Structures are given as structure tokens and as C-alpha cells.
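Inverse folding, one chain.
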């Protein structure tokens, strides 16, 4: 999703993980997944420096918004070596021995059957131990076996509860992780993945090509439209819509390499909430009465999370909040949630050993206008 005018520079880089396709063949040992070159590359990434300008800004804002919770969250966000990565299996491709390999390395399913919505085809594994598998470059004509991501990125899709045959829109889809999760859960009637930014649009398309086989890929619409206009272009067209909005990505912003760019981002941060509101208004127009919408970000910022949702609820009489507290109860062993949220929203707080998030999730339903 591209931001308007100068705000485009605020767009965060990769919010989710990277895809990986281990070599097919005999049962693999943990050591076979890591080459010395990849190990060194990973170590190099863990040595990046925190941007003090951003940290100071977050310290002031999040101390006020989160209270005592902020100090433990800050310790995780500023220490990448304790970050974790979930492994989302690709139902279209993964090898028979992959789950055995994951279990042998201490991985276990991230989500339990107590969830209100958990398709059997969705398989996501997590480990309490920090670390990640190495990534593999895109190879034309070869599907990847799994996708590395922040496990909290799956929660917005679980909240959306997509069923087979429903028409679904992923409004701000790049880099494509949540679109992949949707397709692991169900087979939509029509699936529309949109990304406004040209570079990220190409990235999205490549991700989908890496995971979705033909003919399923041919049934997916991948567009490069302004998300603020889709409501006018496709009024009341979709049953389910995901708005994973551009936001002030806390993890990546903390490691900004350019201090001037970081300062500019912080100064223009308030423009993001305006864009987020506009995207939600557009999504509501594109949603059929009775349909559901999930809004998500990967920031802790109240201005981009609950404030945006409250503004929508106060200005749009045809949407109502949907209680999603059962999701938090069902996954409380794997995720830490902020206690000061309303029944229609969740905020995942990174914690050592459960370093998932930040991830904000809110769910709305459209009702018939009176």
C-alpha cells in the first residue's frame, strides 16, 4: 500500500517473514538447514543498532500509553537475538517429513483446537527458543514449502474466519504473508489481493507465485489500486475484508539506519492514522451487509489502533464491533495480550519466550443501513 505524497516515505519495510523451501528428499537434520554463510548472515542481522531518536520517541509515548508494561516490551523490541519466527506450512507443497523435522527441533503447533475458528489445513509451528530457519530465493515454477513469519500475523486471519466460497479482499496485501495464511485456511469464491505501491505490488505477486499453484493462482486477482478507491469501484462486493494497514512498524523503525529519515518518519507519523481511517471507510463501502472486516497493524500506537477504530465506530452507523476475546483466551499460552483493550480488539505484546507482536487486531461487522 503506497502512502499519499510525501507520506510515502513512512511506509515500513517487510512486516512479516520470508519464505523458505528446504531441499526435498531424505529426512533432514537441524544442522542441514543452516550453512555457515547463512549463520554468519543471521548473526550480522542481530548486531544492528537501535536508533536512539526512535527509541526516545517510543519511550515517551509508550511509557504513557502502556505504563509499566512498556519496559518489558522495550527489552524484547530492542534485542533482536530473542526474536522468534513461526513456520507456516504450505498445504500446496510441503514435504511429508517437514513436520517431523520441526518437532525434532522443539517446534509445536501454535494454535489449539479450542479456537473458535481453526481450519485443519492451517498448520503453523512455533518454538520457545529464539532463532529462524534460513530463507531461500524465489525460483520460478517451484513452490516453497513454508513461510517464516511473526506468529501474531496469523491472528488477524483467524479473526476474519474465512469460509470456502466467500468473496475476500486483502486490501493492503504486500508482502503477501496474510494472503498466504488466508489460502491455507479456505478456498475463497473470489480472492482479491491489492497493493498500491508498485515495488511492493511486484513483491506481493512474487510471493503468491512462490506458494500458490496453478490453477488456483489464476483464480486470484492481484491488483495495484489505491485502496481508498476500492469501495467506490466495488461497492458491497466482498463477504470478508482484511485491512492490514500501513503503520509505524515498531520493530523496523527502532532499527532505522538513517537518523534524518527516522526523524522525518516520526514527524509525519500522525498522517498514518488519517490514511488508515480512509482505508477503513473504503473497505466498509466494499463490504456486503452482514460481512466482516478485520483491521490490523504491527504497532503499539494507540493513535493508529484503538483511536482509528473508535473514530470509525463513531462516524459509521452501519458497522458494529465484534467480540473476539475468545481468541485471546484460546491462545493465551503462546501470546501475551495487553489487558486494557475492549472486547472487539486485541493487542499482542512481545515478551521474552513469547516474542510475538506487536500486533493489533480489531473486528467489525457491517449491518444493513437504516
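Residues assigned per position:
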Amino acid at each position: 500500500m503506497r502512502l499519499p505524497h510525501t507520506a510515502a516515505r513512512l511506509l515500513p519495510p517487510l512486516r512479516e517473514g520470508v519464505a523458505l523451501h528446504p531441499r526435498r528428499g531424505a529426512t533432514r537434520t537441524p544442522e542441514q538447514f543452516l550453512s555457515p554463510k547463512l549463520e554468519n548472515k543471521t548473526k550480522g542481522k542481530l548486531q544492528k543498532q537501535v536508533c536512539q531518536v526512535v527509541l526516545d520517541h517510543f519511550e515517551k509515548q509508550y511509557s504513557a500509553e502502556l505504563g509499566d508494561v512498556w519496559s518489558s516490551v522495550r527489552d524484547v523490541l530492542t534485542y533482536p537475538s530473542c526474536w522468534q519466527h513461526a513456520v507456516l506450512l504450505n498445504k500446496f507443497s510441503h514435504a511429508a517429513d517437514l513436520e517431523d523435522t520441526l518437532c525434532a527441533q522443539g517446534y509445536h503447533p501454535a494454535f489449539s483446537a479450542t479456537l473458535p475458528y481453526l481450519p485443519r489445513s492451517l498448520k503453523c509451528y512455533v518454538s520457545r527458543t529464539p532463532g529462524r530457519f534460513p530463507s531461500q530465493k524465489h525460483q520460478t515454477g517451484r513452490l516453497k514449502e513454508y513461510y517464516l513469519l511473526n506468529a501474531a500475523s496469523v491472528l488477524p486471519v483467524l479473526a476474519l474466519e474465512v469460509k470456502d466460497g466467500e468473496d475476500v479482499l486483502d486490501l493492503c496485501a504486500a508482502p503477501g504473508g496474510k494472503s498466504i495464511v488466508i489460502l491455507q485456511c479456505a478456498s475463497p469464491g473470489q480472492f482479491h489481493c491489492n497493493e498500491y505501491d508498485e515495488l511492493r505490488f511486484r513483491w506481493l505477486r512474487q510471493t503468491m507465485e512462490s506458494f500458490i499453484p496453478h490453477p488456483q493462482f489464476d483464480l486470484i486477482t492481484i491488483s495495484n489500486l489505491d485502496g481508498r478507491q476500492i469501495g467506490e469501484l466495488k461497492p458491497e462486493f466482498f463477504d470478508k475484508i482484511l485491512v492490514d494497514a500501513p503503520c509505524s512498524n515498531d520493530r523496523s523503525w527502532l532499527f532505522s539506519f538513517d537518523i534524518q529519515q527516522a526523524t522525518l518518519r516520526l514527524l509525519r507519523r500522525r498522517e498514518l492514522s488519517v490514511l488508515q481511517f480512509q482505508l477503513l471507510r473504503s473497505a466498509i463501502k466494499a463490504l456486503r451487509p452482514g460481512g466482516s472486516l478485520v483491521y490490523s497493524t504491527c504497532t503499539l500506537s494507540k493513535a493508529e489502533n484503538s483511536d482509528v477504530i473508535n473514530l470509525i465506530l463513531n462516524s459509521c452507523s452501519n458497522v458494529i464491533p465484534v467480540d473476539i476475546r475468545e481468541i485471546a483466551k484460546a491462545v493465551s499460552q503462546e501470546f501475551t495480550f495487553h489487558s486494557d483493550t475492549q472486547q472487539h480488539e486485541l493487542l499482542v505484546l512481545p515478551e521474552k519466550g513469547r516474542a510475538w507482536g506487536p500486533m493489533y487486531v480489531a473486528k467489525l461487522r457491517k449491518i444493513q443501513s437504516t
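The longest helix spans residues 270-286. Residues 234 and 286 are 6 Å apart (CA to CA).
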